[in-house]
Each structure stands twice: as structure tokens, then as C-alpha cells.
Amino acid sequence: MTVFAVAAIAISLAIAGPVLAEGSVVLSTTYPSVVADKGRALTFPVEVTNRTGDFVTVDLRVAEGPASWNPDLRDRGFSIRTVMLGPDKAQSLEFSATPPANAPSGDYAFLLRALAGGATVSELRVMVTLRDVVSSGITLATQFPNVRGQAGSTFSFKFDLANKAGVERDIGLSASAAQGWEAMFKPSFESKQVSSFRVKAGETQGVDVDVSGPQKLEAGEYKVVIVASAGADKAEVPLTIAIAGQSRLAFGTSDGRLNTRATVDQETKLPFILKNTGSAPLPRLTFSSSPPEGWQIAFQPDRVDELAPEQQIDVTAIIRPSSRALAGDYVVSLTASAPGASDSKSIRVTVETPTTWGIVGLLAIAGVLGGLGWVFVRYSRR
What we know:
Elements: H1 3-16, E1 25-28, E2 33-37, E3 42-50, E4 56-64, E5 72-75, E6 78-79, E7 82-85, E8 90-97, E9 106-116, E10 119-131, E11 138-142, E12 146-150, E13 154-163, E14 169-177, E15 182-187, E16 196-199, E17 204-212, E18 220-230, E19 233-244, E20 249-253, E21 259-263, E22 268-276, E23 282-290, E24 296-300, E25 303-307, E26 312-320, E27 328-338, E28 341-352, H2 355-380
């Protein structure tokens, strides 16, 4: 062998690095065999250890394994191909792979290889058992499923939506209720409305649900079912909303006028309409008035045992001014009331002089005029 050939070999060995004995560099992992779900990326740590007293440059390869899984050795977001290790030092990496969604269940093997100076110094075989996704369902829960309020209100609920499956997935939310009811879904502490949530495996998502119904509802209980679904998994929570009846009363004249005429010591009848405009029955309705002194006011009927929602009846107010009332305008307040509801109307009453007194006045005037005429005729002849 010539001097030049020996020199060339020496230079190449110097470039490639020292030839290392097997076991001088070790590939290891805490998890040489793992179980993974279809379609779910898997990662676990791998360590490269230099057991020599020198600096060593180590090339890393995924020598065997299904390429469709995209197996790789990574660190800090980079694919790692070579590491340089100081004497008796180690470097941690991460082995990653993603089984395709259509990959059949079974066992898969990956061979990781470390090379130094072009020679294999260590190998690590990793076994992956691929299984079908285990779906343990979803859960949907709220602490207060029963509420009470008035018609036209918005009722708020807080839910916990949990993904019990082994994979991240989208979970849709909807509501089942009678016509006119609506439900809006929002992430907890957020204002945006959504119809589905992406929830990671084993995690729980907070959900705010606002439920509203028609403006006019009869008193009673109403059911709204909140439904969460993802594939074949489904969870339902029935909500009970108790609508308390609203007490409202309308009391007014049949023709809308708030004035009438009356005569001293005579009865004037003023027709009214009494209507329950609320959503709850009105019991024990009574009538009252605030008339001037000496006036008499009565109602027909004088009381109503119960008035159903939207029911109306005719009521007559009978007004009798005092015998000492002077001609002019008076204000009379009339009120219909029930427990929790009332309505009043102020009526202007114009009091007129009785017709008989008008006739008496005319006769008196005629008498005075006649007497004056008689005096004039008698004394004018003298």
C-alpha cells in the first residue's frame, strides 16, 4: 500500500469520526410498546446516550416501519437527523407517527437506528398496537334544570359538555321544544353563538344556553330538551320552565268615552267592559269609586268570582249625583281590582239641572211678567 493510500484512509477516518464499538451509543425509550387509536397522532420520548469519553456525532434513521404513518424523530418542532453528543452525555428526542384513518387494527413495528462513522452502533425496536377508536360517549349536565319566570323572559342555563371518547371530535348542540321556543348556545364567558364545539379527548367544555319562548304564554310548565350529538353518541337533558301567569286587567267604557251627563237625584248608567289581558285567572274581582260628597255609585254586578285569561264581561256603573249638587262638571274615579291587578278610570260627569226645576223657573218668570203687565194696565187708566 502506498503512502498516498494510507494517507487517504486516515483522512477519511478522520472525517467520518472514530469507529465506535457496539453499545458505545445507546437508543432507548421508556415506552417500547404502546397502544394507539386510529387516526390519532402518537408521540413518546426517545433518548440517545453517548457512553464514551469523546465527542460523538450520531446519525439517526427510522429504518423500518410503515411510511404512511410519517414516522419521525423530532425536537422543538424540527426533524432531527444528526446529534452531536459530548462525553457521557444524552439527548432526548420525540418519536412521532400518525396512523392513517383507514389503517387496519393490528401490531406495527418501527426500527430506529443510530449510526456513527457510517456503522450501526445501536437499534431500537418500537411496537405499536393499533385499535379501533373506543367511543365511551358524551355527557351533558347542568346543575339547575328547573327554572321559573314570566312569559317573554330569557332563561339562562350553564352546562358541562364532556367528551368521553378517545379522540378529539366535534359535538353538535340543538334544542327540541314546542313551536315558538328558541335556544342559543355559547362557550362559557363568551358572547359568540355557536352550534357545535370541538372538544379534546377526555376534556370538558363549558356551555351557556339561553332559552326564550313566545311573548304570550299561559301559566304552566314547558319542556325544552337540549341535545348533544357526535356520530352515534348522543346525550339529552330535559329542562323544565315554569311560566308564572301574569295578572293584567283592562277596565274601560264600551265606547271609549270618559265623560257622561247626569241629573241631580237621578240615576245615570254608564256601561263598562272588564277584560283579563294577562295569562293567569283573576279571582275575586271587586269595584270601588271615589265620588264627590253625597253622591251614590253602584256597580252591576257588584263583584266577579273569577275572570279567565282573555275573558271579558260587561259591567254597568250607576251614578246618582247628590240632591245638592250644582250644575257643572265633576270627576269620578272608578276602579276594578283583583289580587295582583287593578285598573282605574277617571270619568268627567256633567251635572245638569232637573227638567222639573226648569219648568218651575219658566212659570215663575211668566208669573212675574204677567203681574207686571196687570199693574201696568190697571194704573195706566187713571
